[in-house]
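User: What would this chain look like folded?
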Amino acid sequence: MILKNEEETAAAGAALARSARPGDVIALSGPLGVGKTAFARGFIEALGHSSDVPSPSFAIVQPYDELDPPVWHVDLYRIESPKEMEELGLDAAADAVMLVEWPEQAGKDAWPGALSLSLDFAQDGDRILTAKVPPSWEGRCPPHEDPQPFIAVAEWLIGRGLSAPDILARDLEKGLLLLADFGSARLRETLDENPKREFELYELATDVLIHLHRHPPMAGLKSHGLEQWLQELELFTDWYCPAVGLSVDVDGYRAAWQRTLEPVANDGLGPVTVLRDYHAENVMLVEGRNGIAHFGLLDFQDALAGHPAYDLASVLEDARRDVPREIERAMIDRYVATTGSKEAFERAYWALAAQRNARILGVFTRLWKRDNKPGYRRFQPRMWGLLERDLGQPHLEPVRHWFDVNIPPEHRRQPWRQAG
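Assistant: Here's the prediction, encoded as structure tokens.
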């Protein structure tokens, strides 16, 4: 695993914490300054510790018995001989997770069943995290994911003339796939480096969806309709509002959204296959392929059967990069020129863009608060700009009124600019 910075190192620790069990030993090796304590801090904070997580270099053992499971953070850097281990009382940690930095100081046979992690420096300043996984950790590190939804959607997309990675090898029991390489040219970086190509490439992004939506949705996909839209919107009131210290009218929030989204759910457009995370960071530009096949699609395993406006809003109101308004307008016009359903599609586009952006405000807050990924805070001002623009549409008045009453301006962009 490549870790770009200290934040990603801490996030890797946080992700592992959710799989830890009492009695586990995690041995964390690596040179000075590589980020072992950052990894440990993410791990410990993910289990609910809210104070500082100091390096135990001098204390050697720092217990966090209040956590569930308890964690003993151990740093053996100053241990000169394995014989000194007897004085540390580590046998008392049998019901805790033991997170050990510099485990090699204890001798190679100290913890034969440990999950052995190694952090090292890459040439470009990144960190490389590798793991030696014992039988007791199989399925937990890396966390086991069922690859079959990815396989099914990939094969379906390929069968309809779109580019998804070919599956070169698979081990379904271990949740592993070997995928064809799409190269290193990602749409996000290509757009940032060549802004003059924005119109051309967003036309292609739109054409991919036009082509996709000519086909009935893939069989067996779960529905993405009114019930699911309303459920996703709860992320805003469940996570965003408490994070900025607001108590809001939750019933009124749901009612306003339901009034706005019911006409969209009943407009007769779709269902189509919704990729759900269709944006510039999930598209590769595949060398040697032309037209819509030039777009190598990624991260589609959560595809759903839903409204055709959703993915267009996803790529044009991107959470991670600004898309010029004139391009957004041109791409909406390009799409509706093909479908002939301008009024209904326009209404759906702005409503689902607003729904998605409100949901993402909640998702990014949850990633910060629950998953120890504070870097997502930097996207929140952009999300507010997009949401407020969406809410300016006349048919979103019920939702706009709710936000005006419940979310004062000082609880929108400003807290995130200060946090960032």
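The longest helix spans residues 342-369. If you want, I can go into more detail on any region.
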